[in-house]
Amino acid sequence: MIAAVVVLLVLLTGLPLVGLSLVGAPIGPYLEFPPQTHVVQPAPFSWPVFLVLSLSVVWAVGPVVWRLIASRRSDRTQFRSLRPFPWWGWAGALVTGLSWVVAWNRFPWCSALQPHTFTPLWLGYILIVNGWTLRRTGRCLLLDSPGKFFMLFPLSAAFWWSCEYLNRFVQNWYYVGAEDLTPWQYLVQATIPFSTVLPSVRSTMDLLASFPEVTAGMDRLPPLRCHRQRWAAAALLIAASAGLTGIGIWPASLFPLVWVAPLFLITALQMFMGAETIFSRAEEGDWSEMWLAAVAALICGFCWEMWNSKSLAHWEYAIPAVHRFKLFEMPLLGYAGYLPFGLECLAVTKFIFAHHVGHRLKPR
């Protein structure tokens, strides 16, 4: 496992730099810390690109949504609360509510707190979602697997730092209000919020799993057959390596690969090790776990963008060719990126943990 992690990190960090070297671009600016992600002007909006990408999303997601609608049963499982909503869930709601008020207002008496509302917002969210899951199912990730739950926080910080690194090449987002921080301040003030990403997505997955209609029919889809694991792993490794190299050469065209190439790379390494991947259950026709991950990330993405939109310290986007029809700061088509991002979150947890984190939590 350690060797696989080392290989992953070397390829993830090294291949984009190889791409820069191939075109003779300087490497220094991409290794600055704090990262100097300059505000860039994206390529102008293009209707052909927008329509092609939109149709691709519809082609990928449409059949799944149709299957969900067709599989809805009239005799839905009757919800019966197994436990009362826990006190710590109410505490989380209070923390999120207060943090939301502080984030979206400019009260002089709390000006020192206004740049730091991201973390309490999401810690409160995590408590709310785990409390809701406990109420619906009698179990939750926080109480059932506390060791793995708390390990998700440092793993999440490392994971999102890797996303920040890849963003240096494509510069799809940049932060407002972090320009004057020292390297130490930036490290601390970025790492702590980054640590909440995976716990938020994973906890949301477990809550969604308690609603049978969310995954109706997803365990009876056509199986994903793969008869030659080694050949498939090699193909994924080559595709991922080419993609990571390519974002150093053609960032304006290959920026979506920031969310796809690492997923292929992780999957290829898992297949070479003979470990479970996010696609393993799909070989039996069960796509529900991947669907839960994608939808959970989309829900978290909506909340990320909503809370970010009026916060003092926030991020903005510069996405080539599709930067139009914004919902908060994110262009509408950009939300489609949260779907593969959810798969990436799931793949990272499976890569680090031998088995998936938590349980499939459903009403009893």
List its salient traits.
364 residues; mainly alpha; two-stranded antiparallel ribbon; 4 strands; globular
Give a structural overview:
- There is one protein chain.
- With 364 residues, the chain is mainly alpha-helical.
- The chain has one domain.
- 58% of the residues lie in helices and 3% in strands.
- It has 13 helices and 4 strands.
- The strands form 2 sheets. A two-stranded antiparallel sheet has the order 1-2. Strands 3-4 form a two-stranded antiparallel ribbon.
- Helix 9 packs antiparallel against helix 11 (261-273) and helix 11 runs parallel beside helix 13.
- The model has no long low-confidence stretch (mean pLDDT 91).
Write the layout of secondary structure elements.
Blueprint (H helix, E strand, L loop, with lengths): L1 H21 L24 H25 L15 H18 L13 H20 L3 H4 L1 H25 L2 E4 L6 H12 L2 H13 L19 H18 L4 H4 L6 H13 L14 H22 L4 E4 L8 E2 L2 E2 L6 H15 L12
Antiparallel strand pairs: 1-2, 3-4
Helix pairs in contact: 1-9, 3-4, 4-8, 6-7, 8-12, 9-11, 11-13, 12-13
Outline:
This protein is mainly alpha-helical and 364 residues long. Helix content is 58%, strand content 3%. It is globular, with a radius of gyration of 21 Å.
Taking all residues together, what is the mean pLDDT?
A: 91
Oligomerization category of the chains in this entry: single chain
Whole-number tally of structural domains = 1
Strand order of the largest sheet: 1-2
**Computed CA radius of gyration, to the nearest angstrom:** 21 Å
Question: Helix and strand succession?
Answer: HHHHHHEHHHHHHEEEH
**What is the β-strand count?**
4
pLDDT under 50 segments (min length 5)?
Answer: none
Overall 3D shape: globular
Task: Note the total helix count.
Answer: 13
Major β-sheet profile:
2 strands, antiparallel
Query: Proportion of β residues?
Result: under 5%
Kindly report how far apart the N and C termini lie.
36 Å
Helix percentage? 55-70%
Strand pairing plus helix content: what structural class? mainly alpha
